[in-house]
Amino acid sequence: MWYNIIKFGPRQTPNQSVGSKQPMKVSDKKLPAPDPTKFVVSLTQQNRGSLYGRWAKLWGDNIQRFDTRDEARAFLVNTMRERGNPAPWTVEGDNVSGHCVVYDGIMMSLGAPAYNYIIHEEDEELPDAASFNPKVDWTSAQALKDRMEGKFSTTKRD
């Protein structure tokens, strides 16, 4: 009667699992390797000018992609040195962000355009270009002494 409906105790028997009767299938397909992360350098102008308030990839349509941030920064330093007008730009900052400025001897040249840069992953969303202000130590006594000796900021972050 009621004990046939509830089935407590020794009368209760579990059903056998269907999955344990079938052999496990292993696929021969390999998972695709994830694309390696590529880094890109983007620039924005510090003061009013043609690039102020917007990000531009380094040198327009010829976008360079790099495997590491260090490679991207080395390319930025070489490019800014070669294409300097009226004098080469000095890249100050780390391998994530900083600025590119022109020095007239020891002082920053106010007549030359100055740029902020950011080294980021290729598809990463960028901060607002007009309010982006990287923290760069260029006014301390040690920074001035290093510039006079020809040393530049090489602080790195991951």
Q: What do you see in this structure?
A:
The chain has 3 helices and 6 strands. With 158 residues, the chain is α+β, with helices and mostly antiparallel strands. The protein has a domain at 39-122. Strands 1, 2, 3, 4, 5 and 6 form a 6-stranded antiparallel β-sheet that branches. The chain starts with a helix and ends in a 10-residue tail after the last helix.
How does the SSE layout of this entry go?
Blueprint: H1 2-6, E1 39-45, E2 56-57, H2 69-82, E3 89-93, E4 97-104, E5 107-108, E6 115-121, H3 141-148
Antiparallel strand pairs: 1-2, 1-6, 3-4, 4-5, 4-6
User: Which regions are unreliable across 5 or more consecutive residues at pLDDT < 50?
Assistant: none
Distance between the terminal alpha carbons, to the nearest Å? 73 Å
Cα shape: elongated
What portion of residues belong to β-strands?
15-25%
Characteristic key phrases:
about 160 residues, alpha+beta, about 15% helix, elongated
Please outline what is shown here.
The protein is built from three helices and six strands. By secondary structure, the protein is α+β, with helices and mostly antiparallel strands.
